[in-house]
Amino acid sequence: MKPTLLNKFLFIFLLLIPVALATTTVYTDKSVYAPGETVIISGTCSQANVPVGLRGLFDVETVWFDQVTSDASQKYSAQFVPPQKGIYSIRAACQGDTSVTVEVEVKEVVAGGDSTPTPNIGGNNDGGNNGGGSGWNCIPKWQYSEWSYCDANLEQTRTATDSESCANKKPKQSDILRSCEMCEESWSCAAWSECSGGVQTRDCFDDHACATSLLMPPTTQTCTTYVPPVVQQTAPSKPFFSGIATTAVSFWDDYMYWIIGVPLGIIILFLLILLLRLLFKKKLVYDEKEVRDWVKRERAAGTMMDDVKTIISQYTHWDKEKVERVVNGLK
């Protein structure tokens, strides 16, 4: 049975379905965050182990950029902390897929509200003017920022702010995302390397990752290596100061003062310490009553009076008159 024209068309259509559905998905753990709170970003790619470019936009300015890789199950994840209050557009693009955008808002969260996070799923569908929250009669008034630069996906974005603050109402996707013709390169270069072989090099990077090099600055340049001039020294025809005889300097001449001074300083320091100990030697003070009690005990033990006086003089260093006075006071 020969295939009909209709069967051929259906066969080609089925082959093209996966290609048409090959797109990136992105979502955040919730749509509203408090200042300083971390935004958790997740999504899927149509392929595993491919690079995923992530960018956070605030008022057309890129405030965050990251690149991750999808895992074996084609999933990826990332996170960042918004620097201030406002509405942020988070864009994600897997290699070979169509980029998608999701918006989050950073504002003060009313205490006692619903703390259960609801996943905030992004995509290319129009938000329209439908929705609830502030009532069906709320009509938003959108104010748009300037379009961003044309990125590597040949797309431009801008943010939309509703002056009426209608809840759960989003602008049309076509009003905040549009196609453009050429990626706008933005090159940053490191410093030139040292001159080697008459050539200097440097590394340059396109911050917008356009994958083109139309505006790429030069990465090599010629240079001249500085060679200091060679000074030729010639011996004088006659020696200078010929009348002065040269003498060799010995070890003793170089270190004579150290050899003499160090031991002498140690001896002087030792004598000074000894003198201070003698001058400030702690003298013991003996109580006369205690001495008299001791004399009584010694006399009762049969010790001669002359021996008692000698012992008192040796240990107390009293003069002879004081010793006599203490001893006579016992009589």
Write structural notes for this entry.
This protein has helices at about 5-20, 175, 250-280, 290-300, 305-315, 320-330, and strands at about 25-30, 30-35, 40-45, 50-60, 60-70, 75-80, 85-95, 100-105, 120, 140-145, 155, 160, 175-180, 185-190, 200, 205, 220. By secondary structure, the chain is an alpha+beta fold. Among the domains are: about 25-105 and about 120-180, Macroglobulin (MG2) domain (Immunoglobulin-like, Sandwich), CATH 2.60.40; about 185-225, no CATH class; about 290-330, no CATH class. Strand 4 (about 50-60) and strand 5 form a beta hairpin.
Q: Helices, strands, pairings?
A:
Blueprint: H1 5-20, E1 25-28, E2 32-33, E3 39-44, E4 51-58, E5 61-69, E6 75-80, E7 86-94, E8 100-106, E9 120-121, E10 142-144, E11 155-157, E12 160-162, H2 173-176, E13 177-179, E14 187-189, E15 199-201, E16 204-206, E17 220-222, H3 251-279, H4 288-300, H5 305-316, H6 320-328
Parallel strand pairs: 2-8
Antiparallel strand pairs: 1-3, 1-9, 3-6, 4-5, 4-7, 7-8, 10-12, 11-13, 14-16, 15-17
